Amino acid sequence: MRAAVLHEIGQDKLEVLDDVEAVGFGPGKVRLRIRATGLCHSDVSAMSGVLPQPAPFIPGHEGAGEVMDVGDGVTGLSAGDRVLVCWLPACGACPSCKRGQTQLCLAGFMNAGTPNFKRPGGDVFGFAGTGTFTEEVVVGAGCAVPIPDDVPFEIAALIGCGVTTGLGAAINTAKVEAGSSVAVIGCGGVGISTIQGARVQGAAQIVAVDPVASRREAALRFGATEAVSPDEFADARQRVTAGEGFDYVFEVVGKSATARTAYENTRRGGTLCIVGAGAMDDNFQVNMFELFFDEKRILPSMYGGGDVLRSYERAIALWRAGRIDLESMITHRVRLDGINDALDQMRTGESLRTCVEL
Questions:
Q1: pLDDT (tens place) for every residue of the chain, 358 residues total
Q2: Phi and psi at residue 327, in whole multiples of 5°?
Q3: Model pTM greater than 0.90?
Q4: Which of 258, 277, 299, 337 has a Cα-to-Cα distance from 186 of 20 to 30 A?
């Protein structure tokens, strides 16, 4: 079968090969035919080494498709079912799951160290234990979440990661209050979803911050009340909040420098929400006096900060009701052979989300 493979960490191009085999099928597993997958910035971060991932590997974790076969012991799924890929399934038994914090379950991460593909030259890993830049993949049954028939594969793929992450940051983690002021730093697919989440929650002012003009223009279409470049952020803070700072600031870049900017632009007693996934050696610093004196809440948001199955259902309900726009987030569509062009479009900020159709 065909798949896009990164041979070594640090390479910026994928090689599309036709000699890849999905392996590991057996009890508790399902084999999926991927029909659509989104290109998420986390894929690029794994390729560059910002996020830890063994290589060679197949990127992609934001996918949807059909069940081809189910292993022994799998219930609730059968061949032909339409599903989205959950890259962080909950085991239901660990302490995090028992506390209701299923987004912190580590069972899914354990799968990242087990190859689920192979080539004549050896084993190949799937990113985050999945790997959706491929025609077929074998994953644990918990990674395959049934979707209603009226949800297109490309929409389901987005809900599988970026949309759930952004919406959840505003709704689950920060719990944006109606009438509040919000700033979102970083307006790719996850940032745009955060903006939509803040709008759904009833924020009065939503300022989008991004260096790319096309992304600022997109942010306005998705609910931002204004959009500024990073150099204009201080002026926006003065204009919108009379210099006090925003009630909520979302950092959706994953870098300590932008996290510090977000902290400084959060009002005293306000909320800084960290949504971007950054590098392990990139340290965010605050001094002990400001941490105490300003009483700003610093809230990391992992995969939307809530039960992902409930979050999927909510995203579908909001989409059906016309409260969020998911179709327009897909700015580019490619086949697998065009994956490297899609990567370049993401790096330059030209695309919000690219749908890879398989």
A1: 999 999 999 999 999 999 999 999 999 999 999 999 999 999 999 999 999 999 999 999 999 999 999 999 999 999 999 999 999 999 999 999 999 999 999 887 777 789 999 999 899 999 999 999 999 999 999 999 999 999 999 999 999 999 999 999 999 999 999 999 999 999 999 999 999 999 999 999 999 999 999 999 999 999 999 999 999 999 999 999 999 999 999 999 999 999 999 999 999 999 999 999 999 999 999 999 999 999 999 999 999 999 999 999 999 999 999 999 999 999 999 999 999 999 999 999 999 999 999 9
A2: -55, -45
A3: yes
A4: 337
Token pair for residue 110?
Answer: 């354990």
Question: In this structure, which amino acid lies at residue 97?
Answer: C
Token pair belonging to 182: 């919000």
> What is the rounded CA–CA span in Å between residue 107 and residue 91?
6
